[in-house]
Design a protein that fits this description.
Mean pLDDT: 96
Radius of gyration: 17 Å
Shape: globular
Structural class: alpha/beta
Order of helices and strands: HHEEHHEHEHHEH
Oligomer: single chain
Length: about 190
């Protein structure tokens, strides 16, 4: 007699690390693009410093520069391949606003410590952002770590811009590269 298979999971839960609330000033207005990316890079740095995930951070901001949602890489701790920083930021912002399309309530910006991989790039179209701010480039990620960023269209920036998403990159690139370098040299995978 064989045992009945376990029931399918009816619930999925992804958690950000406990330190996240202390790292984000929800009252502050992040007015410049540089300030927004600086927060994403700081989240990525802290994530590896405390060992709570990989070297990526992201935040969603409203048109007034207030943080709506944040994310850090949680793939290994949550055993979930979609728990990338950008995806976590989209999900926390969507939960906070009660909307799957964020910019239905006003212009939204996603700031990332590194260029989105192919999955996060695709999610950017449907999450409802108007601006994408990027720290490190994908070539930095792949040169300094073991991460594979996956295939993107040759004109990935043009594709985003044709869909109404402005792109600005290389903001705090050196600081973002330093986090990636430290992670890559550590030999740790989390």
């Amino acid at each position: 007699m064989s045992a009945a298979p376990a029931p399918l999971q009816a619930r999925v839960e992804l958690l950000l690390p406990d330190w996240i609330d202390d790292a984000v000033d929800r009252q502050r207005r992040y007015l410049s693009d540089e300030d927004k990316v600086a927060l994403a890079v700081e989240l990525s740095r802290r994530n590896i410093d405390v060992g709570s995930g990989g070297p990526f951070g992201a935040a969603v901001f409203d048109h007034d520069g207030r943080v709506i949602g944040v994310g850090v890489n949680r793939v290994v701790p949550q055993t979930c391949s979609v728990a990338h920083a950008e995806m976590m930021a989209f999900m926390t912002a969507q939960t906070a606003l009660g909307r799957y399309r964020l910019n239905e309530v006003g212009a939204m910006t996603l700031a990332t410590s590194a260029q989105p991989c192919c999955m996060c790039y695709g999610a950017s179209f449907w999450a409802g952002i108007d601006t994408l701010l990027i720290g490190a480039r994908s070539e930095d990620v792949m040169a300094l770590t073991e991460f594979d960023e996956g295939p993107l269209p040759a004109d990935w920036i043009g594709e985003l811009e044709r869909r109404g998403i402005a792109v600005r990159r290389d903001l705090h690139r050196d600081a973002a590269r330093e986090v990636l370098r430290r992670y890559g040299e550590s030999g740790v995978a989390y």
